[in-house]
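Translate sequence into structure tokens.
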Amino acid sequence: MNIFSFLSVLSLLSISSASSKEQVTSRAVWQKPTPIFSQKYDWLRLKSDEWLKGDIVSMYDDELEFDSDEFGVKTFDWEDVNELRSRFDQQIRLADGRVVQGFLIVKDGHLVLLSQGVETHYPLSELLSITSTSESRIDLWDGKVSVGVDISSGNVNQLEYLVSAMLQRRTPFTRFRSDMTFNYSKSLNEDADSVVSDTRRITSYLDWFYSGKVFLRAIDYEYYSDLLQNIKYRNNIGSSIGYHIVNNKRLQWDATVGPSYQETVYYNNIENSSQKSGALSLSTLLEYTISRKIDYIIDYQMKFVDDASGGRNHHLKTGFEFEFTDNFELDLTLYIDRVAKPVAANDQEQPKKNDYRLLISLGYDF
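Result follows.
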């Protein structure tokens, strides 16, 4: 090999080595691009490094509810959140009970709140809940409407339907919820009484959260009417103390106990047309997420009243909710109502103590 060939080979090796070093250096200094945050959206970055734009709905019980612009309302474990940025003021409830508000930035295990040009830092471990301060946003409300219809013909000609609805709103300190159930059945036979059953129930309550476990049910109201039980209407109002027995991603279980006042008016009973009584109310609500598509609920209430008002009044709602789209569910629900000492109408037999209803309905969440 002459000197010229040797120099050519050496030159090629040097160029190849330099090119390899440039590639290594290029990979070493490459950095992920910084996204441009549009002020039209809130922004969420997950631990998987995925970014979502949309609206912060709320954060309670270590779960963040986020309305993605592309995927709709989704719930994420708080531990899966890597970064969160808001475009509106948010109300922040801290572990010591304080509620502060401002533009929110959560990043690197730290919470920053911007308010009137002042930047305040908090340990992320102090954060209990997040709620938007925009009072007009519909996302602050949760609701559901269900409808079930049963039409029988042949030996039994009957129309029966159930309508139920739920509306709920939460803030850092309070929770308001109202439930309504209307069950009605009508005979379609010409020789039979028209209305077979007519049951209506409305419950509403307002909770104030004292701590992460204890809450005060400041107002607890129930309206109930049942044709078969001879109850024209029954009003019960009271207050109670509540406790979160279990509160995690899959299971929420609350229990309450407290005094109340009840007034019952009967359809047709001269001696006992109206009864008033003090009461002791007990209730429990359990909601268990079996899977992403199946939920199980138990809602039980019991009231101790005097004998003329029924002795003990029970109401149980339990069943499964099967989600088949983002907003629609198929509900299989068992209702049990019991009056320990029912009051009969004049010249009629005493109503049975227990009423059972097993219904299938279609529900819409909003």
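Note: The chain has a mean pLDDT of 81.
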